[in-house]
Amino acid sequence: MSEDVEVGKAGPLFEDFLREQGNYEETTEQAVKRVIAYQLVEAMTEQKITKVEMARRLKTSRAQLDRLLDPDNDGVTIATLSRAARAVGRRLRLELQ
Fold first, then answer.
1. Distance CA 36, CA 40 (A)
2. Long-range contact set of residues 76-79: C-beta below 8 Å, sequence gap at least 24
3. Under the phi-then-psi rule, with left for phi > 0, alpha for psi from -120 to 50, and beta for the rest, what region is 35?
4. Among 58, 60, 81, 59, which Cα is nearest to 70's?
């Protein structure tokens, strides 16, 4: 065990590691998108909303909906995420910290 780490104490925060590596912002953005996509799918499942119905509510194609729900697609706008949230009776909330 390293002498720099006290027993019972956490090491450096993972966020600090990501900042040192220079990819904190990118990783955080991707994590947020994954969580939102997951929450949208969960809301659809709970409400028994099919992808076809969700696409209809958003006035878009099923292919566009698949891109929206793809956690790796970073080309989705905040406006689109907000519309999707409203379509399942939720709202998107963003904040600066």
1. 6
2. 76/33
3. alpha
4. 81
DSSP letter string, 17-79? HHHHHT-HHHHHHHHHHHHHHHHHHHHHHHTT--HHHHHHHHTS-HHHHHHHH-TT-----HH
**pLDDT, tens digit, 9 for 90 and up, residues 14-70:** 888 878 888 887 788 888 888 999 999 999 999 999 999 999 999 999 999 999 999
What's the half-sphere exposure (Cβ side, CA atoms, 13 Å) at 23? 4
The CATH number that domain 14-87 falls under is: 1.10.260
Residue given tokens 């998108």 in the structure block: 33
Burial environment of residue 68 by CB neighbours within 10 A (0 to 12, 13 to 18, 19 or more): buried
